[in-house]
Design brief:
Translation Initiation Factor IF3, 4-stranded mixed beta sheet, about 55% helix, flat
């Protein structure tokens, strides 16, 4: 499930039951607490909730604008895949993105 509903993601998670959320293998969310800092505590609460429901939480951004939740029970991904996503894929993607921006500025 991809969630990018311009600030309404908090209400969506609040209204979703644990059972409904656990049906998803992965959830990608663009939280908007970088625009609305007052939402930071609620965003952290959602991340804790999903962690407690058995999801790995991988933040692909410096803020919470690109967060991936992977359901350990249904994804088939083991700890090695989690480590690869959280540490290798995340940082390699970030390096590529930054280099791409750098190349555009020097042209």
């Amino acid at each position: 499930m991809k969630v990018d509903i311009e600030g309404a993601e908090l209400a969506m998670f609040e209204s979703a039951s644990d059972a409904d959320l656990q049906k998803f293998t992965q959830i990608t969310v663009e939280f908007h607490d970088f625009i609305y800092p007052e939402q930071s505590r609620e965003v952290e609460s959602i991340k804790r909730r999903l962690r407690g429901l058995g999801f790995w939480v991988i933040n692909f951004s410096l803020d919470n604008s690109d967060v991936l939740f992977v359901n350990r029970a249904t994804s088939g991904a083991g700890r090695l895949q989690y480590i690869r996503l959280k540490y290798i894929t995340k940082y390699m993607s970030g390096i590529r993105r930054r280099l791409s921006g750098y190349r555009r500025t020097i042209r």
